[in-house]
Write a structure and sequence with these properties.
With about 200 residues, the protein is an all-alpha fold. It is built from six helices and two strands. Helices cover about 35% and strands about 0% of the residues. The protein has a two-stranded antiparallel ribbon with strand order 1-2. Bound molecules: iron/sulfur cluster. The site of iron/sulfur cluster has 11 residues, from loops. This is YkgJ family cysteine cluster protein.
Length: about 200
């Protein structure tokens, strides 16, 4: 497994009614419409590939509680821009890397349609552990090639680093305060879930 993976969410045309997306039309996230179209296709293809393997996600939400599971979610800059601009408003403040601001009180992801590759490929299902790096590597390679083809910055970095920068750019509205109360969830150490790595 590569270090990137190891350390490692559709919207329609929004550039105006009746205006067909074109590869050169910038999106609210600063990404070309053509790139976004291919990124969505990549995510769809990953979903199809995963369906072949059938990994089970018990929806424990454990993989999104990064510090609790000694784990860092890395993602590329274009994916971070897609997530920040396409996901609903974050539910919680951005902390120093312990949790994801899109995980709700029940441990569920509220940014599923915009979640990055790292979230999509990660499963605790023991039967998928061998295949996960293979599938992950293949799609990470494809994502990188796509990013390069459009001349976009790769900048693979932890989620909270990406979000702080995008918050400063005004791409996403985020409260940067540390959570004031204890974690609103109850840790579940008995079941699997969906990456971060
Ligand atoms: S799946 Fe990814 S985007 Fe969704 S809550 Fe978990 S870490 Fe955040």
């Amino acid at each position: 497994m590569s270090n990137e993976l190891e350390h490692a969410l559709a919207f329609g045309p929004s550039q105006g009614e009746g205006v067909a997306p074109s590869p050169s039309t910038p999106s609210p996230a600063g990404l070309p419409a053509g790139f976004l179209e291919e990124l969505r296709q990549l995510y769809d293809d990953l979903g199809i590939e995963l369906a072949k393997w059938g990994p089970v996600c018990a929806l424990s939400g454990r993989c999104c509680r990064f510090h609790e599971f000694d784990h860092v979610l890395f993602l590329s800059e274009p994916e971070a821009r897609f997530l920040a601009s396409e996901a609903p408003a974050p539910l919680r403040p951005l902390d120093a890397g312990a949790t994801c601001p899109w995980q709700d009180d029940r441990g569920r992801c509220q940014a599923r349609q915009a979640r990055p590759l790292g979230c999509r490929i990660s499963f605790c299902d023991p039967s998928f552990q061998e295949a996960m790096p293979v599938v992950g590597e293949a799609f990470l390679k494809r994502l990188k090639a796509l990013t390069m083809r459009y001349g976009l910055a790769w900048n693979y970095a932890p989620l909270h680093h990406q979000l702080r920068r995008l918050r400063d750019e005004g791409v996403v509205q985020l409260d940067l305060e540390e959570p004031r109360s204890p974690k609103p969830w109850v840790a579940d150490h008995s079941a699997p879930s969906g990456l971060s790595a």
